Amino acid sequence: DLSYNNIKDLPSFKGCHTLEEISLQHNQIHEIAEDTFQGLSSLRVLDLSRNQIHQIHKGAFITVGALLNLDLSFNELSSVPVEGLSGLNQLKLTGNSELKEALAAKNFAKLRSLSVPYAYQCCAFWGCDSYLNSNAEDASHQDQGALMDPEKANADIPRNAKNEELGQTIIHCTPATGAFKPCEYLLGSWMIRLTVWFIFLVALFFNLLVMLTIFASCTTLPSSKLFISLISVSNLFMGVYTGILTFLDAVSWGRFAEFGIWWETGSGCRIAGFLAVFSSESAIFFLMLAAVERSFSAKEFIKKGKSNHQKQFQIAAFFAFLCALVAGCLPLFYKADYSASPLCLPFPTGETPLLGFTVTLVLLNSLAFLLMAVIYTKLYCNLEKEDLSENSQSSTIKHVAWLIFTNCIFFCPVAFFSFAPLITAISISPEIMKSVTLIFFPLPACLNPVLYVFFNPKFKEDWKLLRRHLTRKNGAVAIAVSAQGGCVTQDFYYDCGVYTHLQGNIALCECCESLLLSKPVPCKHLIKSHSCPALAVVPCQRPDGYWSDCGTQSAHSDYADEDDSFVSDSSDQVQACGRACFYQSRGFPLVRYAYNIPRIKD
């Protein structure tokens, strides 16, 4: 026993033929030479654990044929020689993080106990269910063939006996494979695989659609749309994370054990884990801020008719982004967190690794959902007293309420399984934990944009604006509309309570623009533009009464009186063009108004 002696260079034991056990643990040995254990024909136990061995000569164990127990754990090995180790009963290689190559079972015919750095290395030693099933199927086929051909059966008796003996051999390999350490398929069953693919495709498409409509429709985002767009960005990152898992499952189809070590220890898993945690936390923080913003906006709308806290909420959104960024970066400093499973999440995987970070995240998210529930309960109690059912903000208030409800529902299973390892009385199958994590963790990223697209009228308004921006021809048309009149036509059924923003120097009503771009419609309060070149480009300044929210009604004109107004009953286009050119030549804006055309269904 030469343990705990700080030995750096190991001399040759040549000539010590009667040595049966050597213990060299807890030293500072760096290398094992070819002649170090040469000639030790009686050596049965060799302990080289907890050293700094980074290289072993490929012929170091050729002459130790009687060796039964070899311990090389907690060293710096990147490869292990197999010559001369066919008679081993126990091999310990755990703790060698650089040892990523797969071991071949044929080189260790008598092995009974194996300890390796990564669970995927156990797949070759009866660690994979399909491997056992395939051997069982081969045996059944051989039995059926024996019944049909007795002579062949007699010839195969020795071989079958050998296979039976090998099949009865039980190899204890740690760490064990399982749902979170699969040998074949990352996503497991087809039901889980198809669900994850569906979540990925829906999250990717609908979040991009929501972001496109919101950012393309308004030059200045109000606070409500700002948080909805930020939530969509966060959900898009979650969709990217889900897409990474689906792509990895497709690439490693049926042989994930060959990719598992490379994936978990590489930078790809860390990037995927960062995206998952960052997107999850940022979505929850932005949703909490959206709930607070809706509460403040509703109260101020009752008192003042408008809300003036946009800058404050932008600053709050920036700090929420920083908090989510910190939450995503913290596991990067603890290598075991993101690499604990191929899902690259710092959540429990059936074992009990570092649970501090997971528990902290779950408690923080639970507190955020509790705060959202309290805020919205109080908000709805106030809304029952103040009838705001017809208010333009009611749709966003209801949308945020749906987001809070659905996200909280999907968060509960993930939170429960996060605390499950701390409760010894609860025994949950790893397969169930993996299925719940793969489905419920990214599901809000799929459902949130779908709720906005199909159930929020704001999306329809933004979609109309986006379509007009895409179909708009070169140039623009300025028009004048009376605040007292409206267009009476069956085709002109639009909600003109929402206005387009100033595009460059042109102010244009949604419904009037769509009317002019589609076809001429008789209307006594519209100046037709297709015959008047002077109306193509008219400078227009933003009035004080024109709100950035595009939803406030006002009507005034500073440059036209009752006798010389563009808003008249005259249908003479020549007079209209003359007036337009007159005001344009003097630098006056053509119109300065916001208006509301009544909705007419008949």
From TrEMBL:
<keyword id="KW-1015">Disulfide bond</keyword>
<feature type="domain" description="G-protein coupled receptors family 1 profile">
    <location>
        <begin position="206"/>
        <end position="452"/>
    </location>
</feature>
<feature type="transmembrane region" description="Helical">
    <location>
        <begin position="271"/>
        <end position="292"/>
    </location>
</feature>
<feature type="transmembrane region" description="Helical">
    <location>
        <begin position="354"/>
        <end position="379"/>
    </location>
</feature>
<dbReference type="Pfam" id="PF13855">
    <property type="entry name" value="LRR_8"/>
</dbReference>
<feature type="transmembrane region" description="Helical">
    <location>
        <begin position="435"/>
        <end position="455"/>
    </location>
</feature>
<keyword id="KW-0297">G-protein coupled receptor</keyword>
<dbReference type="InterPro" id="IPR003591">
    <property type="entry name" value="Leu-rich_rpt_typical-subtyp"/>
</dbReference>
<dbReference type="InterPro" id="IPR032675">
    <property type="entry name" value="LRR_dom_sf"/>
</dbReference>
<dbReference type="GO" id="GO:0008528">
    <property type="term" value="F:G protein-coupled peptide receptor activity"/>
</dbReference>
<keyword id="KW-0221">Differentiation</keyword>
<dbReference type="InterPro" id="IPR017452">
    <property type="entry name" value="GPCR_Rhodpsn_7TM"/>
</dbReference>
<dbReference type="InterPro" id="IPR001611">
    <property type="entry name" value="Leu-rich_rpt"/>
</dbReference>
<dbReference type="GO" id="GO:0005886">
    <property type="term" value="C:plasma membrane"/>
</dbReference>
<keyword id="KW-0677">Repeat</keyword>
<keyword id="KW-0217">Developmental protein</keyword>
<keyword id="KW-0812">Transmembrane</keyword>
<keyword id="KW-1133">Transmembrane helix</keyword>
<feature type="transmembrane region" description="Helical">
    <location>
        <begin position="227"/>
        <end position="251"/>
    </location>
</feature>
<keyword id="KW-0675">Receptor</keyword>
<dbReference type="GO" id="GO:0048511">
    <property type="term" value="P:rhythmic process"/>
</dbReference>
<keyword id="KW-0325">Glycoprotein</keyword>
<feature type="transmembrane region" description="Helical">
    <location>
        <begin position="313"/>
        <end position="334"/>
    </location>
</feature>
<keyword id="KW-0807">Transducer</keyword>
<keyword id="KW-0090">Biological rhythms</keyword>
<dbReference type="InterPro" id="IPR000276">
    <property type="entry name" value="GPCR_Rhodpsn"/>
</dbReference>
<keyword id="KW-0732">Signal</keyword>
<dbReference type="InterPro" id="IPR002131">
    <property type="entry name" value="Gphrmn_rcpt_fam"/>
</dbReference>
<dbReference type="GO" id="GO:0090263">
    <property type="term" value="P:positive regulation of canonical Wnt signaling pathway"/>
</dbReference>
<feature type="transmembrane region" description="Helical">
    <location>
        <begin position="190"/>
        <end position="215"/>
    </location>
</feature>
<keyword id="KW-0433">Leucine-rich repeat</keyword>
<keyword id="KW-0472">Membrane</keyword>
<dbReference type="Pfam" id="PF00001">
    <property type="entry name" value="7tm_1"/>
</dbReference>
<dbReference type="GO" id="GO:0030154">
    <property type="term" value="P:cell differentiation"/>
</dbReference>
<protein>
    <recommendedName>
        <fullName>Leucine-rich repeat-containing G-protein coupled receptor 4</fullName>
    </recommendedName>
</protein>
<dbReference type="GO" id="GO:0016055">
    <property type="term" value="P:Wnt signaling pathway"/>
</dbReference>
<feature type="transmembrane region" description="Helical">
    <location>
        <begin position="400"/>
        <end position="423"/>
    </location>
</feature>
<keyword id="KW-0879">Wnt signaling pathway</keyword>
<dbReference type="GO" id="GO:0016500">
    <property type="term" value="F:protein-hormone receptor activity"/>
</dbReference>
<dbReference type="GO" id="GO:0007189">
    <property type="term" value="P:adenylate cyclase-activating G protein-coupled receptor signaling pathway"/>
</dbReference>
<keyword id="KW-1003">Cell membrane</keyword>
